Structures are given as C-alpha cells and as structure tokens.
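Anyone up for a design puzzle?
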C-alpha cells in the first residue's frame, strides 16, 4: 500500500530529451527515453500529488491522473517548467536538456551543394533551467532535484555539479554504452546538499523514483 505522503502537494517533473532544430526536418537531440521522468510522475501521482509532467519528445503514453505539457526545445521546456513551478512544492528535472542549440534555424531544408564543403554548425548556449530554478525559488522551501549522467568520477563530478547548480538533491548515474538510456532499470546515488549520500541499487526506475520522493517528502516536512 502506497502512503499518500504527497497529498496536497504540487510537483513538477520534466522528462524526455529536448530537440534543437537545424531546419524543418533536422534536429540535434539525445538518447533520453523519458522513462525515468515518467516513472517519477506515476509514482508521485500514486503518492497523492498533483503532478505536472513537462514532456520533451518522449513518445510514451500519458500517465493516468497527470497533467502533461508537451514541449520540443530547451527554450520551450524552460517556459513550461517555470510556469508550472510558480506554485510547486517540488521540481524534478529529469529531462535531458540540450546545453547548446544551433545559432541559426534555416526555414528551408539545408541542401548539399556539388563540390562544396558543408557549412559548419554554430551553436549557442541554452539557458540552464535547473540552475535558474534553484537560484530563484518560486516559493520558500521549494525542493529542487536534478539529474546527472556521468561516465567517470561519478561521485566527485556529482558533488561539483550539485554545488554548481544549487539544487537540493542530485541523482547521479553512471552511463555507458548499454546502460540507463532506454533501459527499464537504473542504478544511482542521490547526493544531498546537506552532504547526504543515498545509494539506490540496480532496479526498476520506479524504485529510484520512490527513493527520490522519500527524500523530497523528508525535506518538505
Ligand atoms: O549540466 P548537466 O546537463 O549535466 O546537468 C543535468 C541536469 O541539469 C539535469 O537535471 C537537467 O535537467 C538540467 N539541465 C537544465 N538545463 C540545461 C541543462 C541541464 O535544467 N540547459
């Protein structure tokens, strides 16, 4: 039996991966499936929360009882998350947000020209939504959670990222060729700004999601 320990709370979860368009048919994207974010949304709803799921290109069915806002790019995701976060008790940024986007969008399809080298793709920085929300809490006591995928020095890089972003909790997982992306399972360590370290053994993404909500509930109390 699930405790309704998020009843009366509004939580915002971002999920999926942003796509940054180059032209009407091409984009820069990433391998995020959205499964971890959807598991967070489902488990929060099961624990009684009102849930806004800001979903970027996930291609997964809407979870029952969850408000789903669909977005494409990082800029759109920022708008939707900031709007929903205005009255939220917790914000969990599980989406893989592109750090950069193409500086120009070609309104017509980019063509290859005989005998000519392609134009380089120039990138500009996207806003860091997690850092922005953490620095500028919409309400006092709002709990902000980030995710980080690291390939090496997982804990040291995670600690540095937690400090840099200014969030309360950072879920760090080690990524490699066949790990995490698109998988049904995950393995992670949840780092707390208070110095805490909560290992989550290899298991379903729901189990990691429930551990995140346990830690959020403790901070909301
Ligand atoms: O810096 P890095 O991309 O590794 O940080 C990952 C965390 O920051 C995730 O929680 C992601 O949702 C968030 N993020 C963000 N805005 C960005 C890049 C990442 O909110 N532009």
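Challenge accepted. My sequence:
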């Amino acid at each position: 039996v699930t405790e309704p320990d998020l009843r009366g709370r509004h939580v915002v979860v971002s999920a999926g991966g942003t796509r940054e368009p180059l032209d009407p048919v091409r984009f820069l994207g990433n391998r995020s499936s959205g499964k971890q974010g959807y598991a967070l949304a489902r488990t929060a709803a099961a624990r009684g929360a009102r849930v806004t799921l800001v979903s970027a290109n996930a291609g997964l069915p809407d979870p029952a009882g969850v408000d789903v806002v669909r977005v494409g790019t990082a800029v759109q995701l920022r708008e939707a998350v900031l709007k929903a976060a205005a009255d939220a008790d917790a914000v969990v940024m599980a989406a893989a947000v592109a750090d950069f986007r193409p500086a120009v969008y070609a309104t017509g399809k980019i063509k290859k020209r005989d005998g000519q080298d392609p134009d380089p793709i120039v990138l500009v920085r996207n806003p860091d939504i997690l850092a922005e929300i953490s620095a500028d809490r919409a309400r006092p006591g709002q709990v902000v959670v980030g995710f980080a995928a690291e390939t090496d020095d997982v804990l040291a890089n995670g600690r540095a990222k937690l400090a840099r972003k200014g969030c309360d909790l950072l879920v760090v997982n080690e990524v490699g060729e066949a790990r995490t992306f698109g998988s049904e399972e995950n393995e992670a360590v949840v780092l707390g700004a208070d110095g805490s370290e909560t290992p989550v053994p290899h298991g379903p993404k729901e189990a990691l999601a429930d551990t995140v909500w346990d830690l959020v509930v403790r901070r909301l109390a």
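A detail worth pointing out: The first helix runs from residue 35 to 46.
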